[in-house]
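FW: tagging you since you asked about this chain on Friday. Here's the raw sequence from the shared folder, copied in full. Didn't touch anything.
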Amino acid sequence: MVQLYENQYVTVTGNLKDAVNGTMITYGNAQFVFGQQTFNNRLPTELTTGFRIPATTEETRLIITVTGYERKTLTFENGILSDRNIGTILLQPETYSVTGRWLDVPGWVFTANPVANLFAYAGNRIVATATANVSDQQFTIPGIPRGVSVSIEAEIKGYRMNGPIVVYPSGDFQGTIYQTFSLKNNFSPIMRDVRVIVSGTNITTNDFIGAFCEETGTQWAQTIVTNPPGWTIGTPRVIDLGTNQLPTGYAFTFKAYVTGQGTMFTRSGVTINDDGADAQIVTIP
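HL: got it, structure written out here
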């Protein structure tokens, strides 16, 4: 920097803010370099009161370095001839990322390939987010401020997280932390009672009828077809097999069978909803 005005100094002021959360940067070792003049071992807040530098009309670069933040460079093409307030300077925190792997994904979830929404919390603030499809088998949450411990929460259709997963980085870590997310251990499926009813004209007295869900293996116990006392109009054609619980949010295939006849009835693509207090009824014709 060439000083053109002998013994003439100007004051440069401003303030530094975190570009992620918008808070004032008040701590950390800071360095401010105005052209050839360097101010070392300063507090970030000292820019608020200002630095006196020689006035000049030559292009001047201001380089700001604060511990825990990426370096910021400002260029004054026409120099600085008078006191200047450079306003609010946003500094990007140095960051690390978390790469997670999905474990214990049921086949019906993998096939449906739902979107997972992921949130990294520091205290009560969200500091990073990500979205990913479960069938990708992994995800990455970038941009987590260096040295900040986060609680990671995930939203997946049909599941409720048992509790956030906490990640503790070392103070100066800036790489990638790997973490597993198990749909079996870290999540619980949202369940609902499902009542299976079998109907058909091929049902006869003394038939043993049962049913099962093909994807989950859930079974409805066999029942024998009998005529109730006083029944005079023939064999019942609608059989209630009772209730069982199934995960919600996904489509399943239900099959009923008649043991003695070796026949089977199928109902495919039935989505179990999570918005009812009573049992959802699935009819297999």
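FW: The chain has three domains: 9-91, 95-189, 191-284.
HL: agreed, and Residues 120 and 126 are 6 Å apart (CA to CA).
FW: great, closing this out.
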